[in-house]
From TrEMBL:
PANTHER family: PROTEIN SGT1 HOMOLOG. It comes from the Eukaryota. Residues 7-96 form the CS domain. GO terms for cellular component: cytoplasm. Pfam families: CS (PF04969). GO terms for molecular function: protein-folding chaperone binding. This is CS domain-containing protein. InterPro entries: CS_dom (IPR007052), HSP20-like_chaperone (IPR008978), Sgt1-like (IPR044563). Gene3D superfamilies: 2.60.40.790.
Amino acid sequence: KEKVEELIQCRHDWYQTPTHVNMSIFAKKVDAKTAVIEFKDREVNIDLKMPDGKRYQMNLPLFQPIEPSGSSFEVLGTKVEITMKKANGISWATLEPSEGNKSWTTFGTTKGSGTVGSRVMHLSTDSPLYAQK
């Protein structure tokens, strides 16, 4: 009898620190030996296999660049934790690129150039919001 593979959706959530973006994929009993998470500069490719032929795949374009060498993941009992090292100190408005985003959290920065709730936005030159200036 041939096993039929079923592609499933999994809930995911994320948060950030000034240096990292952390993502949780809520998937139970992921096979740690076959889990593949490939980090690239502007995307993450995720391929997770679970019991009973279930599989979760996602190609995730990223809002800002990451450092693949400084990024990692860990398979836990009920979820997969992904830690991506930011390539710059920019606060991410969203996980994925989004044209319509106009608000985000800012962090206190050194040299007094910004605080939480700062009125000055520091955009990277490749930010979609930068092009609107």
